[in-house]
From TrEMBL:
SUPFAM superfamilies: Winged helix' DNA-binding domain. It comes from the Bacteria. InterPro entries: HTH_MarR-typ, MarR/SlyA-like, Tscrpt_reg_MarR-type_CS, WH-like_DNA-bd_sf, WH_DNA-bd_sf. This is MarR family winged helix-turn-helix transcriptional regulator. It comes from Streptomyces yaanensis.
Length: 146
């Protein structure tokens, strides 16, 4: 059966996300980081003192997965945990100097992957896609942009 609506925007977005995630995940192996660990570092560098649950919401992954990623980074000395100033049940995460350095190296990897995956586009097209994706995320998961 021929489907004139194929490929859908959802399918194309999923395919592109798979391509980027796969390339990024493979490249992060050089830093001994997973995507979840990268997100934990990224968010703690940008917003020190977040909890693992806060980062999970921003990353749209389960709190358990983010907790495991944060624990691994703490064991490696890339993050440290401190008690929350007002909540006994929550712990705040902070990047260590080594964690900030790892996050900077991961950011360089991210820029390289973005450059490679958007190379077929003109600068205007790349800017347009960035702007449109930002608008969609702003509407669908604004925590991701916090």
């Amino acid at each position: 059966m021929k489907d004139d609506a194929f490929p859908t925007t959802n399918y194309l977005a999923w395919q592109f996300a798979q391509i980027i995630a796969g390339r990024f995940e493979r490249a992060l192996r050089d830093e001994d980081l997973t995507l979840a660990q990268h997100n934990a570092l990224l968010h703690t560098v940008r917003t020190p003192g977040l909890s693992a649950a806060d980062i999970a919401r921003r990353s749209d992954i389960t709190a358990q997965s983010m907790g495991a990623a944060a624990n691994q980074l703490i064991q490696r000395g890339l993050l440290r945990r401190e008690p929350h100033p007002t909540s006994r049940r929550s712990m705040c995460l902070f990047a260590t100097d080594e964690g900030r350095a790892a996050a900077a190296r991961a950011a360089a990897i991210s820029r390289r992957i973005e450059s490679e995956t958007t190379a077929p586009l003109s600068p205007d097209d790349s800017s347009t896609i960035h702007r449109l994706l930002y608008r969609l995320i702003e509407e669908l998961n604004p925590d991701a942009l916090a």
